[in-house]
Design goal:
CATH class: Mainly Alpha
Number of helices: 21
Radius of gyration: 20 Å
CATH architecture: Up-down Bundle
Strand content: under 5%
Helix content: over 70%
């Protein structure tokens, strides 16, 4: 296999194959995240072409966001049983099929089925739990940094493609933008098929940073019902107060990012006469700042108290959301928002994953984080639908922004109730 040859070749240069896994996972999460955010560009074109209301379109998008999280713990169980490569290739194929079929939709129920259920299910299998699995299995050292890199790829993928998607939509229609995404998805699926391996032991390697002084964690047996494995992890996690605090804070994280800004920011700016391309460019700028902020967060999470990191991340995000409606949507006001909010977009992921891994162990971390990520997407789905209804029935997005900002301030406070990571304290 190509992976065996590449591992041997890199080994001669003292490069661990785990970094190849990071690169391929980065591309996978980047492109699948783009398929999550793209419909935010399509809201207005779909309203004009089919006459669907914002609330109807938001219903499909909220289902997509909900499944993006609900599928995660079951995806983790599938990865533990069938391997990373098989699950990820299957997920990318499902997303590709849903997007191609949506090119021919004419009814709102088809939008709900294709963009809501099919794409939502597929992207849920390549959600942040994939990055958490790779970081936990392939790295003993630099785990926080790796989670930061892969978390950045998710947020960056959701934002950085938006100007191109908006430009394609304005000049050639939303179907041209969708075809572009399909091509990217196909290329990534081929890379996963050729290069991804399940564990370092598949290539006769130990995890990066493992000097061999400690025995490897036993590999769980690859049998047993998937549902029982995922639900058993939830039962185990439910006894932990740390789990519920992380679940609650990640619920608020999803509500204040994917559900609100990613889904409705372009439409929100349109209410203040800012063109879709300009709003999408702002989101792309947030993606660039997020890339820096999330990787920096991963570096910080290896060195400092993760509870206080979460306190500052949620607190600053809440203040930025409360500031946005008062920015007058001027160039300087929006630039200031894009910088502060972008640096904070996915910065919460590395400390959350680290706290999950230190609490439940590396082999259980993906299952536990899968359920925590479910909370993230429950929050995203809730506010995606609520914001759409607010815009339809109250003719304003402002209530949703004020609620999201207040929730972030609450998350900042409850994050401090988590028990300190003892391993980090000893280090």
């Amino acid at each position: 296999m190509i992976s065996n040859w590449l591992s041997t070749t890199l080994g001669r240069r003292n490069i661990h194959y785990s970094w190849v896994m990071v690169a391929v996972t980065f591309l996978t999460v980047l492109v699948s995240a783009a398929s999550i955010s793209a419909p935010g560009v399509f809201i207005v074109p779909l309203e004009k072409e089919f006459g669907w209301s914002n609330a109807q379109i938001s219903t499909a998008l909220s289902i997509r966001l909900l499944l993006f999280g609900l599928v995660a713990p079951f995806a983790a169980a599938l990865m533990n049983r069938y391997g990373l490569r098989n699950v990820v290739v299957s997920a990318l194929s499902l997303i590709l099929a849903g997007m191609l079929a949506s090119l021919f939709m004419t009814q709102v129920w088809q939008l709900v089925l294709l963009w809501g259920f099919i794409v939502g299910f597929g992207t849920g299998m390549t959600a942040l739990v994939l990055g958490a699995t790779v970081a936990a299995r392939w790295f003993s050292a630099r785990r926080g940094l790796v989670v930061g890199i892969l978390g950045a790829s998710s947020a960056t993928g959701q934002l950085v493609f938006l100007p191109l998607m908006a430009s394609l939509t304005e000049n050639h229609g939303w179907r041209a933008a969708m075809l572009f995404l399909c091509l990217l998805m196909l290329m990534v699926a081929i890379a996963v098929l050729l290069l991804v391996r399940d564990r370092p032991s598949d290539l006769a390697l130990r995890p990066f940073g493992d000097d061999g002084s400690q025995p490897l964690a036993p590999v769980p047996p690859a049998h047993g019902p998937i549902m029982a494995s995922a639900l058993g992890a939830l039962k185990e996690a439910s006894a932990s107060r740390t789990f519920w605090v992380l679940f609650a804070t990640f619920y608020i994280c999803g509500a204040s990012t994917n559900g609100l800004i990613q889904t409705h920011f372009i439409s929100f700016c349109g209410d203040f006469n800012l063109p879709a391309t300009g709003a999408a460019t702002l989101l792309a700028a947030m993606g660039i700042f997020d890339f820096v902020g999330t990787i920096l967060s991963g570096w910080l999470s290896d060195r400092y108290d993760n509870r206080w990191l979460l306190f500052w991340y949620y607190g600053l995000r809440g203040l930025s959301l409360l500031f946005l409606p008062f920015s007058d949507f001027s160039f300087y006001g929006l630039s200031l928002f894009a910088m502060f909010y972008g640096l904070d977009w996915f910065a919460t992921v590395p400390p959350t994953v680290r706290l999950s891994a230190s609490t439940f162990g590396p082999e259980r971390a993906n299952l536990m984080f899968g359920w925590i990520f479910t909370g993230h997407q429950l929050g995203a789905a809730s506010i995606a639908l609520a914001a759409g209804m607010s815009r339809t029935y109250l003719l304003s997005y402002l209530p949703a922004f004020f609620v999201a900002g207040a929730l972030c301030l609450i998350a900042a406070l409850i994050a401090l109730s988590i028990n300190r990571d003892k391993k980090l304290a000893v280090a």
